[in-house]
Amino acid sequence: MSVRILYFASLRERLGRGEESLELPEGLATVGELKDWLAGQGREALGQTPNLRFAVNQEMARASDPVLDGDEVAFFPPVTGG
């Protein structure tokens, strides 16, 4: 399964990249599983960011939402402004 991953804000800075395209291992089915797999593949910032937010194909998502071939998955920290 091939997906496009986007990283925003402080995640982009900590990971040193804004996006990547990856072939995912078989059996990986949800956004949460993807996050955990990525953290285990050297992207520790994903596991260290409290209240991490997700989007799949530009729609807000939950950790339990599915990831399908060709999806675009975005990870970003909560943002505050003033």
Secondary-structure blueprint:
Elements: E1 2-7, H1 10-15, E2 19-23, H2 31-40, H3 45-48, E3 53-56, E4 59-61, E5 72-76
Parallel strand pairs: 1-5
Antiparallel strand pairs: 1-2, 3-4, 3-5
What features would you describe in this structure?
A 5-stranded mixed β-sheet has the order 2-1-5-3-4. The protein is an alpha+beta fold and 82 residues long. Helices cover 24% and strands 28% of the residues. The protein has a single domain (2-76), classed as Beta-grasp domain (Ubiquitin-like (UB roll)). The chain contains 3 helices and 5 strands. The model has no long low-confidence stretch (mean pLDDT 93). The protein has helices at 10-15, 31-40, 45-48; strands spanning 2-7, 19-23, 53-56, 59-61, 72-76.
Short note summarizing the structure:
This protein is an alpha+beta fold and 82 residues long. 24% of the residues lie in helices and 28% in strands.
Tag the structure with descriptive keywords.
82 residues, 24% helix, alpha+beta, single chain, Ubiquitin-like (UB roll), five-stranded mixed sheet, 3 helices
